[in-house]
Amino acid sequence: MPAPAPGCLAAIPATSAMGRAPGRARRAARAAERGQVLVIVALLMTALTAMLALVVDVGFLLTQRRFDQNGADAASLAAGRALADAVSPLDASARLYFTQSDAELYQSVRYYAGLAPSTTSAAPTGVNRAGAVQGRTALAVTLEYSTGATWCVSPSSVAPPRTPSVPACVLPVVGGVAYPPLPAAAQPFRVRVTVSSTTNAFVAGAIGGNALSPPAPQQDSIPACLRAAGAAGNVTCAQAVAVVLGSTSATTTAARIPVSTGDCQISAPAGGGLFQFWGAAASGCGGDVGSWNNLLDFTTETRWCNTLTGTTDPDYRYVNLLPAGAQVAGGACAGEQPDPTWTRSGYTRDTVYPGQNDVNRDVPYWIAAGFGGAIRAAPTDGNRFPTYLDLSSSPAGNLGQNIAAGFYCGSSGVTATTCDTAINAAGTYFFAKNRPGYHDVCPDTWGRRYGAGCRDAAVVTWTQPEWAVGLNQGGTGWATSGSGGPARVRAARLLTFRFYCDHSGAGLCTQPPKSIVGTAANSSVWGRAVGHVVSGPCATCTTGPSLYGNKVTLQ
């Protein structure tokens, strides 16, 4: 073959070039594909990691929402039960108020929601909380009341973000203390608690999803989520409504002891304070009751006549003013004329201890052991009773100390469960540790504050006090006013009262609650009217709190 011309390159055989080019192309294509897979896998891993992180964050939020509901349920039920057990008379017009103050109720709500009750901290305490995110969560709790169709927010609470906004409650102030709104007649009383959690997400903040809050709701059925002040994170919340309904039936099982107070005297002199049952009792009920010791006469009716047999005989010398049934054949009153204005149709005397017609023994016995009889209480036709006094319409002798012996026994002759029978014929006392319903530390505000003991009992309240005209001359009729204690009253209602006591140095409840009321005479007894929570079905429930019993349910 001739040599190529100068300046020209020899031609490359076509077969050689075509044989080598496809291999390099395939290798280059495969390398490019490997790079694309790595990018796709990296992107997928990033997406999967983000999705997993969101699942974790959302899971914790859903768990937190469940604990929000637990806290709201517990807090609202606790508030409802506290109110149901704190119903007391406000005045002589039969209005009621709750003796659990608004501030104390909000503290209780905070506790059950998972916050320290006596501070403003938003840090969870672990009560009704998810422990896994406790350090990443801040709480906010709101408390609202309703006495009808509308709601108002407790001034102790922060207002929930609702549209339209919820107004602040105008609270009744009694004795300088603000209490929840007065319950309205024929209306259930409702308490709404909303618990909100602001939870700082683990990874959602990196993708801009760590500042979410639900909008302000326009419907009461939707909870109003409130971001905790200064907290970063997503907000969840839940609400619960507790309804307090009243019962027209007394629910107490306590013995009906022979102690009483006037219907217009059962309101404590200061809100949240205690009522003094004996000692310098308040005047009222249509006349001056002075220092009358509020006690009914449960002695046998055969002793009610005008035959004076001795200075310790509870004989009232009421000529023509005798109770029906006093004329027993062969009895001391057989020749007397009955007075139809006395009523005994609903009275059954104590079969275990009918009484000895001796105020020094009967009074402490019935107080300490409980009156075992029965009486009819009704504002218009309840039993007419004489007051347990000797020959005058005011306390005489050691009546006050008899009362003290029945309640406290005293510092001598007392053990945890017994009293010397020389002090108290019953051999026990009202605040003995083995008495049914006794609390060595009362489960209420007074117990928490002062460590006072307490016990509940049914108390006969009276109305229509009357004074005998010309008592010392045999009596000529009845007057609706007078001086000293009334000579007779009508049993009006059976209310549940809680009596309080203080402990002696030996740890026994043997003295009046001086820690609560300050200086108190040893013959005085202090307490307050309480409502009781009805458990189970309540066929007699009305539509409002009462003094007789209440049912608390979640709405």
TrEMBL record:
Domain called Putative Flp pilus-assembly TadG-like N-terminal: residue spans:
35-82
Q: Does the keyword Transmembrane helix apply?
A: yes
One of the Pfam families matching this protein, by short name: Tad
**Highest rank taxon of the organism:** Bacteria
**Keyword annotations:** Membrane, Transmembrane, Transmembrane helix
**Membrane-spanning parts:** 37-62
Q: What is this protein called?
A: Putative Flp pilus-assembly TadG-like N-terminal domain-containing protein
